[in-house]
Amino acid sequence: MQQVATQPASSAARSAPDVAGGAATHAAAQETDGFQLVIDALKLNGIDTIFGLPGIPITDLTRKMQKEGLRVISFRHEQNAGYAASIAGFMTQKPGICLTVSAPGFLNGLTALANATTNCFPMILISGSSEREVVDLQQGDYEEMDQLAIARPHAKAAFRVLHAEDIGVGVARAIRAAVSGRPGGVYLDLPAKLFPQAIDAEAGRNSLIKVVDAAPRQIPAPDAVKRAVDLLKNAKRPLIILGKGAAYAQADADIRALVEKTGIPYLPMSMAKGLLPDTHAQSASAARSYVLPAADVVMLIGARLNWLLSQGKGKTWGAATPKAWGAQKFIQIDISPQEADSNVRIDAPVVGDIGSCVSEILAAIDTTEGADWQKPPAEWLDAIAERKTKNIAKMGESLAKDPSPMNYHSALNVVRDIIKANPDAILVNEGANALDHTRSIVDMYKPRKRLDVGTWGVMGVGMGFSVAAAVVSGEQVIAVEGDSAFGFCGMEVETICRYDLPVCVVILNNNGVYRGDEVNFAGGHDPSPLGFVKGARYEKLMEAFGGVGVMVATPAELRRAMEEAIRSRKPTLINAVIDEKAGTESGRITSLNPTAKKKP
Ligand SMILES: Cc1ncc(C[n+]2csc(CCOP(=O)(O)OP(=O)(O)O)c2C)c(N)n1
Ligand SMILES: [Mg+2]
Q: Does 155 score more than 90 pLDDT?
């Protein structure tokens, strides 16, 4: 692994104002306070990085954290800090911490918290809050808001700590809630008055909890494993679907062994790409629309049957009507027992953590079948191979074209080559067409290298994810962004420059949301709601903060600029100008978009 781009704690300490003295002056040497206990509790539990934005009442907390050796990454907007924390959680299995001020800062972070909960990313949003007594009587405090109540429906759990001696318990509960079972977003409310509260240092130390076994393994029941293996064994057209949960589990070797031992074709969901290399012979990605309706037994590994899989029903699955079920039988490996039957019947639920479930299934296959395990019938594998070959050839033709101006294919063909040559690089991706084309064109080779809009299809995660990916891994990050998507978080290029992170942002610039050739149907001076300033010079934004900005109009220019960004590891923004007519409405999910019967 490459060197993590870290500012040495010692130099941070030298330049930070001496805030520790604040606590020391009002407290004797043997006293500690809320500021210190929050830091001690986090450090005791292996938290080393905080993503946040300072202000009342957490300004001194951020300074003190930095002084005490935590890496504090300070953002320009809390939403981006929140997205950074959540994806750090996904990458590391440790809760990512986002730290914000009260009311508006908290609300800015809340979208990311809700997104984390939806995506099962472990994250803790820690927000300072205003005077409880005043807030509860609605007497008009500075940034008055009942944050705990507002956070609760969007979080897996929400806690408030009122007394310094409870900080240890509060932090421990937040960590357990975030990472155990199905991971998610947790809210921790820390009122302003908590921070300067002084207590005896010894009592403080004793109140802290180092969480033991924060995400306990959950071993599946042997009969559940047997039921699944029996179903799989008798399948004629089996299929494995790998979800984001499978990527999160870090059970890469066992998952690969299960796929390869059974010989079953598999489909990776977007963030599971690279769990096995996308070029693997058993990948059925290029035959997705054939395998989903044709499969007779489908094993879901850490993948939910939500909208991304058409809820397991309708045409996608070979059923006659949108609400009807297909003929498949389902095995579902999931940590949550409530997930089964959420949309269609699950014939063999296997409940437990993905790692334990996969290794138990592998063991069951080995004991009961051993060398006798029959690979799927040749007709099934041949039929898939035939479709794959045809579709890959068709894709090859599109990629080989060199139209002027560039389109998604010719630009992404370059990104595809760059990732192939740099398989450790992390690919962050958002947009509509910019997302869908990247997902299908750019092959991934290693697990957890593709980070994208996830379950909600949310725009604006790009720069937060990029910052966190670079900070957590030290690897080169390549962010492929739609021009609209980038606009949600673009100011964080300053953060990327400030921390000198190896992030190369590639904006696929088509002058708008989906397409840049939309018109105002009223014929007035205002542009279409979907259009942006034509010919915008996004690269100058990066230059403004000392990074490298490049505008490119051809694949050759894009390739040169990306290669240079990777060589130099400098913050780089490449404004890749593509055909404004190249996109389609909503990318590949046009069918989800209600349209007026009569066009405007
Ligand atoms: C937070 C949020 N707001 C709005 C949307 C709706 N939306 C979906 S994709 C998209 C932008 C698509 O344009 P762009 O990023 O430029 O990608 P393109 O299709 O043009 O390549 C928007 C606004 C969303 N998904 N998330
Ligand atoms: Mg666009």
A: yes
- What is the predicted pLDDT for the residue at 587? 86
Q: To test ligand 1's pocket by mutation, which of 110, 514, 584 has the most ligand atoms within 8 angstroms of CB?
A: 514
Residues 169, 170, 172, 178, CA torsion sign: positive
Q: Which of 484, 486, 488 to mutate to test the pocket of ligand 1 (most atoms within 8 A of CB)?
A: 484
Residue type at position 404: S
**pLDDT exceeds cutoff 80 at 24:** no
Q: Are 48 and 72 in contact (CB under 8 A)?
A: no
At 589 the pLDDT is: 83
List the beta bridge partners of residue 508.
482, 576
Give the confidence band of 585 by pLDDT, cuts at 50, 70, 90: confident
pTM higher than 0.85, yes or no?
yes
Q: What is the pLDDT of residues 235-274, one digit of tens each?
A: 999 999 999 999 999 999 999 999 999 999 999 999 999 9
Report whether 331 contacts 228 (CB < 8 A). yes
Tell me how crowded residue 544 is: count the other CB atoms within 10 A of its CB.
12
At 29 the pLDDT is 66
Distance 455 CA to ligand 1 centre (A): 14
- Helix/strand/coil (H, E, C) string of 213-261? CCCCCCCCCHHHHHHHHHHHHCCCCEEEEECHHHHHCCCHHHHHHHHHH
Q: Which atom of ligand 1 is nearest to the CA of 432?
A: 19
Measured CA to CA, the distance from residue 278 to residue 411 in angstroms comes to: 19
Burial class of residue 245, CB neighbours in 10 A (0-12, 13-18, 19+): buried
In angstroms, the first-to-last Cα distance of the chain is 54
Instruction: Residue 227: name the closest of 299, 125, 303 by CA.
Output: 299
**CB-based neighbours (< 5 A) of ligand 2, an ion:** 482-484, 510
Which residues does 331 contact at the CB level (< 8 Å), separation at least 6?
A: 228, 231, 232, 297, 298, 299, 300, 346, 347, 348, 349, 350
Q: Is residue 93 classed as helix, strand or coil in its secondary structure?
A: coil
- C-alpha 356 – ligand 1 centre gap (Å): 38
CA distances from 285 to 31, 190, 317 (A): 60, 46, 15
Residue type present at position 22 = G
Paired tokens of 518: 């939309």
Q: Any bridge partners for residue 478, and if so which?
A: 427, 504
Report the alpha-carbon distance of residue 248 to residue 335 in Å, rounded.
Answer: 12
| C-alpha–C-alpha distance, residues 4 and 472, integer Å | 7
Say if ligand 1 is within 6 A of residue 51 CB. Answer: no
Question: Vertex 15, ends 492 and 476: CA angle to 5°?
Answer: 35
| Mean pLDDT of all residues belonging to the chain | 94
CA of 84 to the centre of ligand 1 (A): 19
Distance 529 CA to ligand 1 centre (A): 12
Residue type (1 letter), 24: A
